[in-house]
Amino acid sequence: MKQQRGGTILGFIIGVVVGLGAALAVAVYVTKVPVPFLNKGANRGAEQDAAEAKKNKDWDPNAPLYGKNPAKPAATVPAAAASAPTQPAAKAETKPAVTADPLGDLAKAKSTAADPFSYFVQAGAFRTAEDAEGQRAKLSLAGVEAKVSEREQSGRVVFRVRVGPFDKRDEAERTKDKLDRAGYETALVRVQR
Questions:
Q1: What is the number of domains present in the chain?
Q2: Which of 43, 70, 74, 168 has the fewest beta carbons under 10 Å from its own?
Q3: CA–CA distance, 128 with 135 (Å, rounded to integer)
Q4: CA distance 40 to 13
Q5: What pLDDT sits at residue 50?
Q6: Does a structural domain hold residue 141?
Q7: What is the CATH number of the domain that holds 180?
Q8: Domain span at residue 139?
Q9: What digits encode the pLDDT tens for the residues 157-180?
Q10: Rg of the chain over all Cα atoms, to the nearest angstrom
Q11: Before 102, cis peptide (omega within 30)?
């Protein structure tokens, strides 16, 4: 029987050299192959640059945020016209001017609109329906109509006792204060309509 020459270390070294050679061949191939969908020969002319500069002159990056009926920014009055006292005053716009803060404009518009939330006063959350019904009964004896709702929370069923809904936050806060004075632990809950 013949004895083998070499060993594990020699086999490992030969494997690493062959692997590095294969990786080098792939790297050379990838860098030499042309990239598809890339037009390397297209150069822009001066007229194309001028046309694009003209197009982008008054471009507003926030235009999509203004909505379907955008309010135009107030026109600036030239310095010569502003210094002339004989010109009549410019007519004030009825639309609010768009500022550099579109989210602030949105918040101002929403603040004048109706409240998008309904409010509840929660007088407890219980593990069993019997405990929740007991709390509802105590509130009923105090002259407050409450409802029990079942909700799964973190994999457990919770029975909530709530008073409401209230359309305005002030009404809900008055009811909460009344229940707090009567000795109940309450929380104000806001729900999107």
A1: 1
A2: 43
A3: 11
A4: 42
A5: 86
A6: yes
A7: 3.30.70.1070
A8: 117-192
A9: 888 888 888 888 888 888 888 888
A10: 37
A11: no
